[in-house]
Amino acid sequence: MMPVSMVGRVGELAELDRAWSAVAAVRRSSPAVAVLTGAAGVGKSLLVAAAVDAFAPRPALILSGAARVHGPAPYDWLAAVLTGRDTSRLGLPSDALAWLAQQPTAPRERYAPGTLLRLAVRTVQLLVGAGPAVLVVDDLHALDPASVNLVGELATVTDLPALLVVASRPPTDAVAPDLTRRALARLSGVRGAVRQHLGPLRPAEVAEVLTQVYAGSNPSGRLVTSLWRCTGGNPYALTELLAAHASEGPEALLRRLPGPRQPTAPRAPAAAADPVVDVPLDPELTAREVEVLGCLVAGMSNKQVAKALGISVRTVTVHVSNLLRKTGSVSRTEVALWAVRHRLPVPAPVD
Ligand SMILES: Nc1ncnc2c1ncn2[C@@H]1O[C@H](COP(=O)(O)OP(=O)(O)OP(=O)(O)O)[C@@H](O)[C@H]1O
Ligand SMILES: [Mg+2]
């Protein structure tokens, strides 16, 4: 399947473009800030990339970094920004720069944390110079604490003519929820900050994706509705599903999707007298979701679930958000309780 190009998000793109135009037109000394949040796979990274790509006039400089999923180290964001960049003319201590860039030869722990933070801010200011620049921080929720602090500092520092664009999953999905919550609040509190929370795609946008995938042919309303319902409009879930099955054609795809709610689902054993138990199981839970549910009941973290089931953490978060939606729960604890109350035969997770 060809990569799907972005659908919808017109208002968000326009708002980000306006924020950039203002930065580019008026040489401000402190940065403008744009904060995007949304669930895993909702399209934050794609939106940021598309917006920055379309910025006119072109930014003099784009400094971009994301969290490394495996083994993040202090100042990961800055290390990503510094990779392959000549910093010899910045006039900063080379051993500190080497440490911030995570070069293997860098001396360890020569500077106090406060000094390193100041040096990190100074490094970014010197790189940006007269700007105007765009600073992209993707996956704030997964960044190391030093990077999160740095991003907060950058948002409020003077002498940084730039648009700071930060994308993050909600704090509840974060490695350090409180730190992420505080950082998002600090960023959103910057005067004039653009704040966007991305929701799922609407059915019309799912239809647009299908039109791309099936080369211009009009998708049936039934297929659109089924796909929208079973993916919750999550573009990641949608594109993954299409990548796996689109070659079979729209009719075959429709047959694969769960139909409308059936009242014939298995019920809890009659012996269980608890009236709550006598609610039918949701027939729309997939086998994988039931497995994930089993792990949640066992109190596992997303990382542990991913390891136990041999899938990526990102896929786990998509399953978890689908479970929240399908069970009408607001937290993973509530989902786990839902499973227990429904006596769901969840498989015991593997160690
Ligand atoms: N508006 C959209 N139209 C079409 N496809 C989209 C759209 N948004 C996202 N996608 C597709 O969905 C997938 C997930 O998008 P993306 O990586 O941007 O999500 P994300 O919110 O950054 O997720 P994460 O929280 O995991 O970083 C990608 O394959 C992307 O191309
Ligand atoms: Mg992303």
Structure, explained:
This protein has 351 residues and is α/β, with parallel strands linked by helices. Helices cover 47% and strands 8% of the residues. It is built from 15 helices and five strands. Strands 2-3-4-1-5 form a five-stranded parallel β-sheet, with helices on both faces. The chain is globular and about 65 Å long. The two termini are 35 Å apart. Mean pLDDT is 84; it is low at 260-283.
Distinct helical segment count: 15
Label the structural class: alpha/beta
**N-to-C SSE series?**
HEHEHHHEHEHEHHHHHHHH
On the 0 to 100 scale, the average pLDDT is 84
Radius of gyration, in angstroms, nearest whole number: 23 Å
List segments where confidence is low: pLDDT < 50 over at least 5 consecutive residues: 260-283
Shape: globular
Q: How far is it from the N-terminal to the C-terminal residue, by CA?
A: 35 Å
Quick summary of this structure?
The chain is an alpha/beta fold.
Features:
five-stranded parallel sheet; 47% helix; 15 helices; alpha/beta; 351 residues; binds magnesium ion; binds adenosine-5'-triphosphate
